[in-house]
Amino acid sequence: MDGDRNGSQGQPTTGGCRDRSDRLEAIRKAIRSRFEPIREAVRSRFEIDTRSLAVLRIALGLLLLLDLLHRAVTIERFYTDDGAYPLAAYEAAYPQFSGLSLHAASGELWFQQLLFVVAALFAIALIAGYRTRLVALVSLLLLLSLHGRNPAVLNGADRLLRVLLLVALLTPLGERWSVDAVRRGTARTTVVGVTTAALLVQPLAVFTQNAILKHRGTTWYAGEAVEIALANDAMTIYLGNHLGSVPLLLEAINWIWITLLAGSVAFLLLPDGRVRSAFALVYIGAFLGMVPTISIGLFPFVLAAAILPFLTTSFWEAVDRVRSSRQVPDTRPIAAYLRQLSRRPVERRLPNSLRRSERESVSSAVSRYGQSILTVLGVIVLCWILLFGVVHATGHDVPEEMDTPLLEEQRWGLYAPDPSESYSWYVVEADLDDGTTVDALEGGDVTTDRPPDASQEYDTFRDRKFMEAVRDSGGESDTGITAESYAAWACERADGGQAGAVERVTVHKFDQSSSIEGQYEEPNRTTIIEWEC
Predict the structure, then answer these.
(1) Chain CA centroid to CA 322, Å
(2) What is the pLDDT of residue 3?
(3) Any stretches that span the bilayer, and where are they (predicted)?
């Protein structure tokens, strides 16, 4: 009887559990149904076509190559012991980077050239999409090492390039149009997740923060800033030298630029794929328009690369329709050849071998573990972008525990809050033992007149950045090592090109107020350093 009673009491309990389970499942379905439109809206805005990721991968590889080629012109001057910034100066000026840069392992020219070649090979591998994530990681480490060796020549483009490469390597850059894709045999059309959200949010954070910082000034939202910026003769080049004669055009460009910056979140996160792609092309065109106008290094190209993930599936479908209407080379033989280069990637071979050995649970666990790591890293990077971006945009101080160099990686203040209304150039005099004074770097007589084109006073934009570091360290008894190293290098340059012995080198800085209406004031002359050779 006890057994019957216990059995009759247990029956309703089982039924009650089942009913509760059914009710909970119904509630979950109702919640999912209620929030499904929101989920789809978020998904549609942060989903990336893998062809856009492929183009971004190729662009990043090309940018790394272009950066190396540009730096190679001055590799001896800025990265060796025979140049203006030897290892002793680096270690004294930036002790916080000591031991962190592989490029600082030797000051010999051959060693730097070797590292440049290695970095170029990895950049080519990134373009090809071979072992994409590993190659991207090594490329990032080599880039950080190069930047750490001489921070004095860096500008905002260098910072944005390393940040963009960091965020991008968390996404499947090798999913399409890559050696990895050919060896893998399959490819997704689109991807979405925290990592893709971080990749899309990064340029939006750059533009939005810059728009807010510009609002603190007085010229951008008055329509005057572009005209002032292009009057900076040290940074204005080619086409920019001729635009000053059309003030109405400059004012229009000013308002277009501010609109693109301030409206980037609205324009680039539109759910309509065609409209979003159209705006992305507008941004890319605007950034590339900076190339023949102002000398800011790789900045226009890196900004354009950051916009590539916003090109949607509808854009690539339109490209395919154009391609299909024309005769294009058959790429199947190339794909067949690439399949012979190597076996399937290890991230595919390992799960397959586990499945064949009937260890499906281990294979699934490995896959889930890898995806979980990427998701966690994506969340961390996304929080880093948003949190530190907001800190700089609002001007708030962070707690001391959070005050790290990583904070500076999300500072985007190009031409903010206002463009400079003056520019500078430098003259390096060499006093010879016969009492004459010559130009230490170019030879011949010293001229202190305003140059007709101040941008030509610098070999590259990195020379201009380095001279700013020389200016900042000049006259400082404890931290003037950069100016002293530059002056010592100028002594050697002057001594090798003159008949007489060089006794002294003096570095002068000339500040010139920009001319808006064609009138110039007398430049202000400052002595940065006098150095006994």
Answers:
(1) 32
(2) 45
(3) 53-73, 109-127, 191-212, 252-270, 282-311, 369-391
Amino acid at 178: S
Segments making up each domain of the chain, as ranges: 1-45, 47-192+331-342, 422-532
Among residues 210, 36, 60, the alpha carbon closest in space to that of 122 is found at 60
| Contact yes or no for 457/426 (Cβ under 8 A) | yes
**Hey, how many other C-beta atoms are within 10 angstroms of the C-beta on 439?**
16
For 178-200, the pLDDT digits (tens) are 999 998 888 899 999 999 999 99
H/E run at residue 367: helix 360-394
Beta-carbon contacts of 80 under 8 Å, excluding residues fewer than 6 positions away, are 86, 107, 108, 109, 112
Helix spans in 231-359 (H): 240-243, 247-262, 264-268, 273-288, 299-307, 313-324, 332-339, 346-356
Name the nearest CA neighbour of 128 among 62, 63, 196, 49. 62
Phi (first) and psi of residue 473, to 5 degrees = -95, -15
Whether residue 172 is preceded by a cis peptide bond, meaning omega within 30 degrees of 0, is no
Looking at residue 499, the DSSP 8-state letter turns out to be S
Residue 76: CB partners within 8 Å, gap ≥ 6? Answer: 82, 83, 109
Distance of CA 163 to the CA centre of its chain: 5
Of 503, 500, 524, give the one whose Cα is nearest residue 512: 524
| Helix (H) and strand (E) counts in the chain | 21, 6
Q: How far is residue 495 CA from its own chain's centroid?
A: 39
Contact 202, 362 (CB under 8 A): no
